[in-house]
Design brief:
With about 240 residues, this protein is of the alpha/beta class. It contains eight helices and seven strands, in the order E-H-E-H-E-H-E-H-E-H-H-E-H-H-E. It has a seven-stranded parallel β-sheet with strand order 3-2-1-4-5-6-7, sandwiched between helices. Strand 2, helix 2 and strand 3 form a beta-alpha-beta unit. The protein binds NADP nicotinamide-adenine-dinucleotide phosphate (NAP).
């Protein structure tokens, strides 16, 4: 029987690449997103019966519950949870309002808490599960003008390690994948000069693509002895 995955924030960028990579392996995917109905429909058209699309804001507990219930109704099970949805709001620390702080923490970190709690009964019943949290090199090294974002991603890595210890005996693996600079809409604000600088600072002399992260996720999905780790495909920019 096909395995079933939920991938949050999967209409664009890294999440979309993860979705296509998992489907290539024969895994059924529920593609979550927040706004992009047109992009979601296109994925549904391209991947057909291997996917379902579900619009939900992952920072809201009731919408997360809806996503998990929908997945169980449509595919009958959940084997893999990829917490990928995330936002960045750049700015000086002094300019971070309560609203910005809460928004970043809720979308990036609270969502991981909610999703994990909602899928856990299924994983415990199955005596098996795989949780992959997409964090960031900023959670490891910190990013200037990205304090809320960095805190949210470091929080994800902390949650990953603690949960791996708590859930390991139940055969549930929990890992973080912490990308370096990836060519997606999230970085569309970067100028040509910014990209050039990133490339110069990266030992492999390139920026990443969604597929670079998707390959790592694809490996983790099949691995059976890795848990509590923060794996960082980043071209060597953080070592
Ligand atoms: P992206 O291109 O901006 O795509 C973001 C995706 O998340 C979209 O599918 C978006 O849905 C969805 N999303 C945003 N807020 C949501 C919410 N509240 N509920 C549900 N879905 C939501 O981002 P990306 O660059 O692929 O990043 C994916 C993940 O990788 C994020 O967690 C990000 O922090 C992390 N990351 C990215 C980089 C990088 O350089 N790009 C580096 C390190 C880590 P809609 O299309 O409907 O808006």
């Amino acid at each position: 029987m096909s395995r079933v995955a939920i991938v949050t924030g999967a209409t664009r960028g890294i999440g979309k690449s993860i979705c296509y990579e998992l489907v290539k392996k024969g895994i059924k995917v529920v593609v979550n997103y927040r706004k992009s109905d047109d992009l979601a429909s296109k994925i549904q058209e391209e991947l057909g019966d291997m996917v379902r699309i579900y619009k939900a804001d992952v920072s809201k507990r009731n919408e997360v519950k809806g996503l998990v219930d929908f997945t169980l109704k449509e595919f009958g099970n959940i084997d893999i949870l990829v917490n990928n949805a995330g936002i960045d709001q750049e700015g000086m620390f002094q300019d971070i309002t309560d609203e910005i702080w809460n928004n970043v923490i809720n979308v990036n970190l609270y969502s991981v808490f909610c999703l994990t709690q909602e899928v856990l009964p299924t994983f415990l019943k199955n005596k098996s599960g795989c949780i992959i949290n997409i964090s960031s090199i900023y959670g490891i090294s910190g990013g200037a003008c990205a304090v809320a974002y960095s805190a949210s991603k470091a929080g994800i890595d902390g949650m990953t390690k603690a949960l791996a210890k708590e859930l390991g005996p139940s055969n549930i693996r929990v890992n973080s994948v912490a990308p370096g600079c990836i060519n997606t809409d999230m970085n569309s604000y970067l100028s040509e000069a910014d990209w050039k600088q990133v490339i110069e600072e990266t030992p492999l002399r390139k920026v990443g693509e969604g597929i670079d992260i998707a390959r790592c996720v694809s490996w983790l999905v099949d691995d059976e002895f890795t848990t509590g780790q923060v794996i960082s495909p980043n071209g060597g920019i953080v070592i």
